[in-house]
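Hey, I was hoping to borrow your eyes for a little while. I've dropped the whole record in just underneath, so have a look:

——
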Amino acid sequence: MKEITLGLFAAMFFAVTFILNRSMELAGGSWMWSSSLRFLFMLPFLFLIVLFRNNVKQIIVEIKKQPIPWFAWSFVGFVLFYAPITFAAAYGPGWLVAGTWQLVIVAGTLLAPLFLESVQTNKGIQKVRQKIPFGAFCISLMILFGVALMQLQNANGVSMQTAMIGVLPVMFAAVAYPLGNRKMMEVCGGRLDTFQRVFGMTLVTIPFWLVLSLVAFIQVGAPSSDQILQSFIVAISSGVIATTLFFIATDRVRGNQKKLAAVEATQSTQVLFVLMGEIALLSTPLPNGMAMIGMSLIVIGMFMHSYFTKKMKTKQPPLTRLRKEQSV
């Protein structure tokens, strides 16, 4: 399944976020600068991409048509996703933040009842509430259990206070990210491509990032050169490349909850990439036997997702389910 492959590549580039955010915090950088600089750096690159494709005017037109949904769901999908993650990185280790973030694979699946879809029935096309895909949900839980096993190796040295501060904001972000993404797919309705959608969401949230950077400047002063460089790397790797790949993958399967759950489950592999990165860059200890079992469960779960979604694709009868969604 091509969408799962795109999701895996996105997870690899997303992993840079957790590694470098923790590195910046250990070096004394402010989480507010880490958040705002990423999106401020993203904007010109995304603008050049859509400008080269002659797609800027259409974005402005779409935002003017529905300004409130654009601002509201972009705020949920970007601001309420990334600000809590960088805040958590200031108080918790990278492995804890990355591991907790994997709740996104379950949260995304549980969001299905919030959406309606068009289905061909004997009475014609009708709107029905989407159901939680039970099989995909169970596989995602197995992957999440594997992630938990990987975290046990490091859990002993973390206090309860650190764990709560490092976990609760990320749990909030894990719901905000898929919710904002799915709602924005509805708002766009297939009229914009992925680059346009990411640029538009970044553009409408820039006022918040400017305010946050002003607060950071007042409280801690200007960011260091190292933090600027690392934030730039995060912006390109995670903000532009990873976000675009992930949004392309989810946009392709937006009308099928099982496939969407499978694509969102690819983000569990971030833990593997973060672990490898922290071992190489931050001298993190090698995983023990329990962690290896957890890694195996993640890999098995991803293979199961890929197999069942591919099998479902070949068996799905034509004209049974339309790829058009409507929000509640």
Notes: The chain has one domain: 2-314. Strands lie at 115-121, 124-129, 321-327. The radius of gyration is 20 Å.
